[in-house]
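Subject: Interface between my chains keeps coming out wrong

I've been trying for a while to get a sensible model of this assembly. When I model each chain on its own everything looks fine, but I need the whole thing in one frame so I can look at the contacts. Pasting all components below, labels as-is. Any help appreciated, I'm running out of ideas.
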Amino acid sequence: MSRLYDTVEPSVVDEEMLQKAVEEQGPKDEAGRLAKAEGIDFAEVTQLRLDFKNILKIDNMWCFTCLTKLQLDNNIIERIEGLDVLVNLTWLDLSFNNIEVIEGLDKLTKLTDLTLYNNRIARIENMDSLVDLHVLSIGNNDLKDLENLTYLRRFKNCKTLNLNGNPFCELEDYKVFVLAYLPHIDYLDYRLVDEASKHSAYEKYQISIEEMLHDERAAQRKLDEQLAKEKEFETHKKAYVEKLNGPYMFDSMYQDDIEGNKLSAMPGVDELLVVYRESFSKICQQIFEFGLIEHEKRVGEIDEFWKAINEAKTENKNMGMVKVNDFIDYKKKLFLDLLQLGEQGQSIAEQRFAEYNDKVAILQDALMGYEMQLVDQLEETVKDFERNMADMVSGFLENVQALISQCRDLENMHHERMMEIAIITLEKVLKNELDDDIPDELRELCVDKDTIVNAVQTSHDLHLLKIDNREDDIVTRINQFMSNMIRDVHDNEEVKRNRQRVSEINNLIDHLRDEIDNLDLQGLNY
Amino acid sequence: MSSEIEQEIIEGEEDVKDQDEENGENDEDENEELAEDIEALKKEMAKIVVEAPTIDVDNSETYDLENFSKSYKEISPKEKLILSFAENFRRQYVHLYRDRKPLFLNPLNECGVEKFVCTTIRPIQLPYQSLYDWDGCGEFVADYLNFVPLEPPTDLPKRLKSPTTVLDEQKGNCFEYSTLLCSFLIGAGYDAYVVNGYATRETCLMDETREICPLMRKKEEKTSSQETKQQRKYAVRPPKDLRSKYEMKQHKRKEDEEATEAEKRRQEEDNRIAELEKPPKDPLFGLRIHSWVLVLANKREVPESFFIEPFTGIAHPVNSVNYLGIESVWNHHNYWVNMQDCSEGVKRLKYDLGDPTLWEYMYPSNEKPQLQIPDDIMNEFDDDDEEEEEIEKHLDMPPSWVDPIRVEEKDFQLRCPQGKKTLLYKKAKLDKYAPYLHRDGLVSRLSVYDDYELNDLLQVKEYYENRIDKLYCRVHNHQNGWVTEQFYEGRQRNLKEHRYKANAPVHETDRVMVFYSQARVDGLLERREKMIDKSTQEMTEQFVDRTDFLYFRSVTFGKRPKKFGPADGKSNPKRPIHKMVEKFKRNEALPANEDMAEVVYNIQEEKITVTYHTENSKISASTREFIKPPNSDEKGATLIMSPEMHTTFQVEPQSKQKKQVEVYEQMVELIASEDASDQKARESEDEVEEILNDRTKEEATSELDISVYDTSRNEKAKKHRKELERLAEEEKMRRQEMELDYLAPFLAQIGDPEQISRQQAYKLKEDCLADLKQRLIDKANLIQARFEKETQELQKKQQWYQQNQVSMQKDDEAEYLAYCGEAMFRIHILELRLNRHKEMAPHKYMALESKIRTDPRLSEYF
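Reply #2:
Try treating it as a single job with all components included. I did that and got this:
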């Protein structure tokens, strides 16, 4: 926007400007004085106004990580940039600038209020991440294309929209189009939209809207399906049995197996393959189901363990709190009494002090006692848990390994039969007794015994390798999981918690002792 | 009385002997014999009827036979048959069981006609909802009727009045009570029977002074089933028990001993009380005849059979000790005689009426209750039974001779005779009143005493209904002087319960108010005021479900300062607030260290103390204390804070210190909230006063709320209807007037002829017009005369004024001026009227002329 002040120097967002703005907009009066004395930390600022500063480029904002409201209106900004750090931003005002393209808003996922009023924007785009947008103002820009507005359909929460002053507002069916394609808008151009006009608008564009809705729904459905599939995959992964429910593993075995594919052209191999595939898949399915069940059991076990731990902790905490609160009540009463005693009761006062100190010591002992109790209890429980988990894991592994060795047996059997068929085929080829035509690749292999035997062997080795890999995969993953979990439990529950509690108790006891000392001084003075 | 029966028995025996002799003859002869017997029986019965009045003259009340319908006064042929059957049965019974008491079969009704008891029961269902259940019926019968004891108590009554008469008179003996109650119950679908048996003296005389009042019986507390703790794999071991086991054992043994001793003492006490309460010995024990109602299981989902005592409407189990024996039972279909041994009371009796060895039935019928055989054996018999289905024709009971029972709506509402009833119980007295009978809506009052003679009043509980101020219960505890009032929802400030000391001054004393917290904007649940000592008072409030998580506020007041100076007469100075405490629930959105749990505003010492919530993993809470800066009371003053004003204890030793700015802002906030709380406290005080004022007003004018649908009582509706009627009347009269003929008087003058001749028509017209003219002139003259009179008077007054102007007083002058004004006004009006009249007169004339012209009777001539 051209201004009267064209000749004024464009300014830059620098330290000085920010400091001044923050101070001006910070707490006032008494609080302001204190704030200045202490110094304001940019990382704690939540609202900032930098308007009418003739800013040309947004920069230097990396300190303000807590910012929720930012106003940069009435400047001469040409590009939206430098706002990536401000992830907590909910209100952004960039009106009355010179912006031409909407960009740079990708990190601002929490944004609810955005105004780009009075800029030079020609197209609505690049706002995909602003899922929570509630209020949008793009009036007085250069928007010409009504179809472009359908981009705003995705903002289901956006109830207020201002498009006034754009070129397409002159079009006849502007209002009707907007009402029809953006049904969730309640306030258009600062006016409440009434149901009747919405309905009539909808009817006008019914056909195309229906199409659009249909497409959207299909897309949504696909997305949902995909999400569901992904979730399922995740759960399978957690049970370490992903991709085992079906012939996936079998297929993956043969995927990279060039020789195997070539050899499958041999007569009689087809049926063999089919049968092999089936039995292999069956075993895989067994592993899959078993894995899921075991996973459930493990999850249940962990839940119970945590439940017990939490219960113990809360019980202990309650007991501790009771003791602390009792003591605090006693302390309050004592202090009141002491204050009222005044000068006369010097000796009584001293007696009371001694009493107090004794009680403090008792409290400390009690609290520490509880903590030790808890440590004991938890230690035992954790040990139990460890043992049980270890048992479970080993049980699981044994079974899985047994099943996998069944797979290996199958493979071995298959290999033997393949070998037989290979030799027979070879002989047939050498004797030219084969009835059907065999593909070239196979013919290459059937040159002599060694090549074909090698081919069969390589195929077999490859398969075995795959199976072994899978087994190792499962084993390592579960073991890792186990060790991680146990280590976490130890660290957090036992060590950290204990340390925290002990330091808390010490802190409290020190504070209580200090209090009586302070009071002591006052008492004696009077 | 017994001689009569003996006579009958002898005669009956003779008849039986006759029968025996002729046993060998054919069936036809036997039938003839039977017919003869019936005749003989009839004669004997006629004899008895003649003789009865001589003996009964003391007790019986004679009724005007005109009031009863035909069925009351006559015996229909079917009834005669039934009666003869009954007589036959009775004779056989007497012959077989000589030492059993006589059966209650066919007493006289109020018209002196013998009727069989089964037909006196008239099953009916009244259109009142409470009579659909057995307890409602029992209560209604118990309340509605006044009871008359059997005279003599060991004999069956001679008369059994019909239920309609019993309801009309609102009194009856136990048999009549039972018959009425049975009629209602059978009408509602229960399997009910009237029982004729023996009971204790207390039951027969409706003496409940040894029963605990039913309202006082504690409801059985449902024992909540404890959830069995899930057997968990990981149970954390409880902390080591470091107590000495030996010591514990010793301790336990001592406790056990004490417990047994206490138990023994308690038992002795119970026995002693039981002894005291035992009724004195009854010489007629086991002989007092009584009638009650038996309800068998299976119909209307009754799980178990039980008795209903008709005098009280209370249910008793089948093995109740109140009842000592059963002679017979009957319902509207059949009559059964009890064949079981009653030496131990009714405990051992079985109520399988289909079993002839236990209960001897009178009429064989297809509707008799089936013998209760276990299901598997029944299945065996099923196939056989299906083939042999011969439906035998049996004699069934004729329909009842009683008119359909009716109870008027207002009688039903009035319930007790005259609307009130007093019942005495053990250490208690219950008064029942009909709703709307008392001006303040009292429906029942239960007085509980400490002694058996009902002298030492402990507590009075009053129940109200239909009060506009929604009060429904008031309990006055005489021992500690506390009164508790309970209200329904819908009051102005949602007051639910109000407890206060009865004789204390109204304001500023101990009281408790409970509110309906869901209906209140501030979620207030309870407010308590208490005097801690002479100079301090405390008011505590508890809240529920508030958005700011406040759940408790307590305000401590000091003594009111003495005011020196002129009596203001305005509102009382408020008591100064010394301390306020507010407690909050945990707000999960804030971290625990910033979520205030308790704030204490110590106004006397100008301190504010804040205690925060404890975090999940901690056992202690952070605190913060502020000393208020001196100028905090001035509005708008900038508060200066120095670091000494703030002390804090943080649980987390490594947590970073709050900045001064933040601390300062918090202090400002706290001071603001202190003001707000102060205001709230004052508002609460005001509210309490308002509530008390409302209550005193309501008590003074206790009004009852009449439902819009209650047409008989609704005064407003009545007035409205009367108004409508009056309007309708007026409308009619007006319409009548309109139809008056304007020519009538003139026609009358010429003698009202049928046909009007031309001359007559002309004459009529002239007369009519002349009359109108005359009237108009008269009217004009009248107005004129008035006008002149007024002007003359005014002139006179003006002259008088002018003459006496100098010597007149202010008041007189004012009077004169006022008079002048009024007179001018009147003159003006008269002038207007005159002018208008002069204008309208010719119009009226023309109008009448045209009317005459168009009148159908005269139009042919014009």
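Reply #3:
Confirming on my end. Chain A has a mean pLDDT of 85.
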